[in-house]
Inverse folding.
């Protein structure tokens, strides 16, 4: 029998490279859609403000440089806050900590929830019961209340807030990934590996996890959005980084009494939080759409052998 | 896309049965969007009243696209660019969407491939039948009467009882009869059947086919029957059109096309069909059909054709020859050639030491026993085929031996040692020595891993080879499976079904097993690919002296691969013996019936005269 030699053409080779890093591939495709580009630019703007902000802030965020609630002027572009500190400098310096905490909490929640969800679905039986019932218990607490509860017991420590928000994310992530894993673990390629006697942990990490890239990405984006909102909310309630350090949530709380004299002390941090959450949410939506094929382009019909012309 | 259109004038085939009802001319369907690649091009055919046209082709040939175009429908991403479809003088492609909707069901009816998903599980049969009749007021006066009548016509006995039932209360064959009844309800002029018997057992399939044939000739309905199964089409259609890469490559009376195929693709397809009557080597067609947008300039089949020559770089016209039309430059030479000679399979000694043995094996799902006292012996260097209809328990048997199913009693031994129930309790060594190949190559390979990683994984798990040794072994096993090294960095979704199954075979063989369990490994594949895979397995099994259990529902395949056959019916072994013995002189009535119901091409071709 003659050897079947099919030389991969340029198009399929470039696909091979992309597939090796499917999450990059998804990000790239999402960024090229209108929705994704919009979300990504909002996100990048806010992240840029938070990251570069501390370097370019005109004043120290804790110095009293003007009158309380003074109107914007040339010296203080966004006016002064309740103690006469520069609002612009506080806005520029108050973002990075919020972002970092939100990112850490998200990462923690996705990792813990992911491990719980995948194990529950793959191991089934008792493991499934125990994991999912614990998940139900955590799920019974509203997220913010759960975080507040922990913080009021132990005290407002940064690590604790990150942990609390992360733990409150885990159940949601666990549920989504459990559902996705249930489908994948029934496929024949998983059975084929099991037939070799490979350990369950290895099957989950090496065979199942790579097939969960899409739900993981979408879930991470979604949890990031929530983390930002909860972090800002906790900050608003006075938990988180203690004053006088600047924080967007804290700023909204501090300056709301002076809304009539200088509204920028409230509006500037609110707008940034809003842009960030809208940005992450829109971009996540774009990722979900491209990976589910809703934003499918014409060319894809040609590229994928499973679409289009195969009668199956 | 070819520039100059070299289409021959409209087909001038004599219509044997009656006036032409359906006439398709130069149908061209493209991918919508900028590319405008042809999916279907230059398709023309006529169907007379009472006649069945078989539209035959492999996956991706465009046969379903043509069938749907007959209903004025193009799947998402496709658009019907030009051509005409005339039904009783009415141009279907010129109709507005509203007018087309009025025609569907009334004049053109459709029978889908999978009745289980085509019927609404929440509605009773009578509701669903009534819907179609009520959608065309005036088509039938007495709706109730017509419903009972049409159920009678499709031979669903006890009309009343069936009308009140839900789809899940009917068997697969009965469900397909209901969809037939829905299609015939308004007495259409044209009926389009899209592989309606693919999911059915041979016996049910034969009954459904008989019904279709009788109804079409009795009511003068023109029928277009889409199928990849040449034997089924051979027994049903009076005319066949063989499609390849969106074009009709050969069209003519069934007897002459199948009896004396001219186009190299038709010849290849026919040589790939397994015969239940002879033990012969199956020959597949190497390569795969070109996808739209990637089709060659000249003859589309040329890259896979064994007979290609320089002239094949030009697109061949459809020429009339020996009572058919064929699209091949070398047709006039080929027409005088006889059928390709078939090679018999070398006989094998089947008296080796027993590798796997089951005795009084009882296997259950929950409390339901699905296998009763199954005893089976697989000698070394021998292939045992396990044959049965769906639900006979053949896959359960394979899974139990492989360790995927644990709930059994009775004895299961490997080299005389008892095998533990379930893979988790088996030693690593016995897991290596028994390898399992799954039915569906589309789910058995991890889509996120390269072919190299997929084959390397068991090698790393079972052996301690150096990296270079591993790579050498992977390359060698891929060569054995007739794949090149180019596949190593590729992902499964860049492969065709046949290539995927070869990868699955390579993955099983790379650890050098002693027993290969193949579970319906070709049922998801086209006939030309099936032939290549079966021949590959047969060759590898004899070269590597493997013991093999080959599970299949296709009795005809057994001859081309196995030495011993076990016939399963409802979880019980009804007949065991050497393949030749059992297939030539079946003893059990079940085997006799199974053999009789297998669609055979020889019945069609035997009656064909020589080429004119």
């Amino acid at each position: 029998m003659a050897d079947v030699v099919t030389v991969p053409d340029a198009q399929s080779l470039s696909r091979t490279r992309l597939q090796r890093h499917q999450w990059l591939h998804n990000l790239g495709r999402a960024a090229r859609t209108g929705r994704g580009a919009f979300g990504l630019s909002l996100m990048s703007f806010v992240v840029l403000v938070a990251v570069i902000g501390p370097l370019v802030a005109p004043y120290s965020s804790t110095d009293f440089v003007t009158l309380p609630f003074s109107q914007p002027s040339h010296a203080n572009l966004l006016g002064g806050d309740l103690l006469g500190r520069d609002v612009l400098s506080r806005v520029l310096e108050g973002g990075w900590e919020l972002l970092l905490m939100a990112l850490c909490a998200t990462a923690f929640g996705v990792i813990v929830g992911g491990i719980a969800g995948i194990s529950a679905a793959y191991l089934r039986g008792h493991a499934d019961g125990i994991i999912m019932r614990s998940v139900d218990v955590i799920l019974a607490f509203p997220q913010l209340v759960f975080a507040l509860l922990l913080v009021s017991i132990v005290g407002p420590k940064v690590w604790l807030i990150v942990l609390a928000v992360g733990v409150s994310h885990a159940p949601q992530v666990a549920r989504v990934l459990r559902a996705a894993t249930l489908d994948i673990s029934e496929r024949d390629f998983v059975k084929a590996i099991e037939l070799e006697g490979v350990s369950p942990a290895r099957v989950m990490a090496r065979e199942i996890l790579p097939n969960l890239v899409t739900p993981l990405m979408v879930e991470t984006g979604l949890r990031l959005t929530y983390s930002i909102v909860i972090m800002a909310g906790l900050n608003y309630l006075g938990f988180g980084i203690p004053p006088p350090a600047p924080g967007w949530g804290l700023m909204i709380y501090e300056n709301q009494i002076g809304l009539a004299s200088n509204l920028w002390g409230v509006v500037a941090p609110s707008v940034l939080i809003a842009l960030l959450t809208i940005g992450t949410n829109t971009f996540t939506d774009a990722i979900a759409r491209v990976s589910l094929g809703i934003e499918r382009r014409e060319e894809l019909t040609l590229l994928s052998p499973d679409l289009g012309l195969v009668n199956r | 896309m070819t520039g100059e259109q070299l289409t021959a004038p409209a087909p001038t085939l004599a219509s044997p049965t009656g006036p032409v009802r359906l006439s398709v001319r130069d149908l061209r369907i493209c991918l919508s969007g900028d590319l405008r690649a042809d999916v279907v091009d230059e398709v023309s055919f006529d169907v007379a009243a009472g006649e069945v046209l078989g539209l035959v082709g492999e996956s991706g040939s465009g046969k379903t696209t043509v069938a749907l175009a007959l209903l004025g429908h193009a799947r998402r991403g496709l658009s019907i660019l030009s051509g005409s479809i005339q039904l009783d003088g009415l141009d279907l492609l010129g109709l507005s969407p509203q007018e087309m909707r009025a025609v569907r069901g009334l004049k053109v009816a459709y029978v889908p491939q999978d009745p289980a998903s085509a019927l609404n599980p929440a509605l009773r049969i009578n509701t669903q039948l009534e819907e179609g009749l009520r959608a065309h007021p005036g088509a039938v006066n007495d709706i109730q009467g017509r419903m009972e009548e049409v159920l009678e016509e499709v031979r669903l006995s006890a009309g009343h009882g069936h009308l009140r039932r839900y789809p899940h209360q009917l068997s697969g064959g009965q469900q397909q009869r209901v969809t037939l009844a829905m299609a015939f309800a308004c007495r259409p002029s044209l009926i389009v059947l899209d592989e309606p018997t693919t999911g059915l057992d041979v016996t049910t399939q034969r009954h459904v086919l008989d019904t279709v044939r009788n109804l079409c000739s009795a009511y003068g309905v023109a029928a277009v029957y889409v199928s990849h199964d040449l034997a089924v089409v051979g027994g049903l259609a009076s005319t066949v059109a063989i499609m390849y890469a969106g074009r009709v490559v050969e069209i003519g009376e069934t007897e002459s096309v199948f009896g004396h195929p001219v186009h190299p693709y038709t010849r290849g397809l026919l040589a790939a069909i397994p015969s239940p009557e002879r033990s012969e080597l199956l020959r597949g067609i190497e390569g795969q059909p070109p996808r739209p947008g990637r089709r060659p300039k000249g003859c589309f089949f040329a890259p896979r054709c064994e007979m290609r020559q320089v002239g094949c770089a030009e697109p061949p016209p459809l020429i009339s020859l020996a009572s058919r039309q064929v699209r091949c430059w070398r047709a006039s030479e080929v027409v005088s050639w006889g059928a390709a000679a078939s090679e018999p399979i070398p006989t094998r000694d089947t008296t080796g030491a027993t590798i796997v043995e089951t005795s009084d094996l009882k296997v259950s799902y929950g409390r339901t026993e699905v296998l009763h006292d199954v005893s089976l012996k697989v000698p070394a260097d021998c292939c045992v085929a396990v044959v049965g209809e769906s639900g006979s328990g053949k896959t359960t048997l394979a899974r139990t031996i492989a360790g995927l199913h644990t709930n059994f009693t009775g004895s299961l031994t490997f080299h005389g040692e008892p095998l533990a129930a379930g893979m988790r309790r088996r030693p690593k060594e016995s897991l290596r020595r028994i390898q399992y190949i799954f039915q569906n190559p589309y789910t058995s390979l991890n889509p996120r891993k390269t072919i190299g990683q997929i084959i390397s994984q068991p090698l790393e798990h079972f052996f301690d080879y150096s990296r270079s040794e591993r790579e050498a072994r992977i390359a060698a096993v891929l060569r054995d499976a007739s794949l090149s090294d180019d596949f190593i960095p590729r992902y499964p979704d860049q492969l065709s079904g046949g290539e995927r199954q070869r990868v699955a075979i390579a993955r099983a063989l790379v650890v050098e097993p002693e027993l290969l369990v193949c579970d319906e490994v070709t049922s998801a594949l086209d006939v030309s690919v099936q032939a290549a895979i079966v021949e590959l397995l047969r060759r590898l099994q004899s070269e590597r002296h493997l013991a093999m259990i080959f599970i299949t529902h296709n009795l005809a395949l057994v001859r081309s691969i196995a030495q011993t056959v076990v016939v399963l019916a409802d979880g019980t072994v009804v007949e065991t013996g050497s393949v030749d013995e059992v297939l030539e002189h079946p003893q059990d009535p079940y085997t006799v019936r199974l053999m009789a119901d297998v669609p055979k091409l020889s019945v069609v071709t035997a009656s064909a005269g020589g080429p004119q």
Q: What stands out?
A: Residues 1-15, 607-612 of chain B have pLDDT under 50 and may be disordered.
